[in-house]
Amino acid sequence: MASQSNDNEIQRYELVERGQLHTLNYRCYFRDIKTKTIVSPFHDIPLVNEHYTPPNGNPVDTIYNMVVEVPRWTNAKMEINKQLKMNPIVQDIKSGKPRFVHNVFPYHGYLWNYGALPQTWEDPNHVDKDTKTTGDNDPLDVCEIIGVLGLIDEGETDWKLIGIDIRDKLASQINDIDDVDKQLPGLLEATRRWFKYYKVPTGKPPNKFALDGKYANREYALRVIHETRKYWEKLAVGETKVDEKVCSIANTTLNNRGTITKEDADQIVEANEKHQKEPVKLDLSVHNVSYVQDE
């Protein structure tokens, strides 16, 4: 475990909530603790964490920042919103209502802490040479960087990185994808099955996978990160043109065409409804369990 000082160094951001959780008006913004400036989890939070030093002082491999959108064992489909300025986390909408993923037996919601790598982008204009499909216009997804699973979700490439918290007690023993089955037997197969079938209860067919459904190793995963980082850089500087209504590039730290002032960012947050601490009362149906037959 990292020391308290290291934890403080890692946790450089705090949450600023607006609206009421599990309603359409809920927004979760990020604010730099030191400068008190609102930041975009898509554009401002660095991809690489250069502040972490292990307690023993020994050098470590590159450490990537991850924005957790959906905590483990929860099923509210929270995600970084690309369209809204400063990219708050909001709950996805389905049929005009906040979306909850089905609880595919034997799990409740997501099996892992699920989120995204900041400053990455799966370019919808780029056809991947391995998946033969385009990107899904989102930051790169992470399940908790030791490997990657190539999901083809409704005809789009949606890479699922497999990573581990550097402070996890198993971090020193899990360095590549083959180590996962040794230390956490069953997790990779459960992960693959979940991604294949999690939309089946909604009436959709099982998802497909690239690479014959096999997990790619750490080296391949790092290549995916490098490529999606380059796509994000082109997006941020304007080389890749997108409609601001589809993908906002507003930020407060990059000093580029999308940079806005601290005051303007504060106004964006304050324009939302005030935060209500108590989440809306949920219908019990969101906890129902779905049973799916394997193909």
TrEMBL record:
Zinc-finger keyword on record: no
InterPro entries found in the cross-reference section: Pyrophosphatase, Pyrophosphatase_sf
CDD domains, A to Z: pyrophosphatase
Keywords for this protein: Hydrolase, Magnesium, Metal-binding
GO biological process: phosphate-containing compound metabolic process
GO cellular component, one term: cytoplasm
EC code: 3.6.1.1
Span of the signal peptide: none
GO function term, MF aspect, one: magnesium ion binding
Name of this protein: inorganic diphosphatase
Organism: Rotaria sordida
Phylogenetic classification of the source organism: Eukaryota, Metazoa, Spiralia, Gnathifera, Rotifera
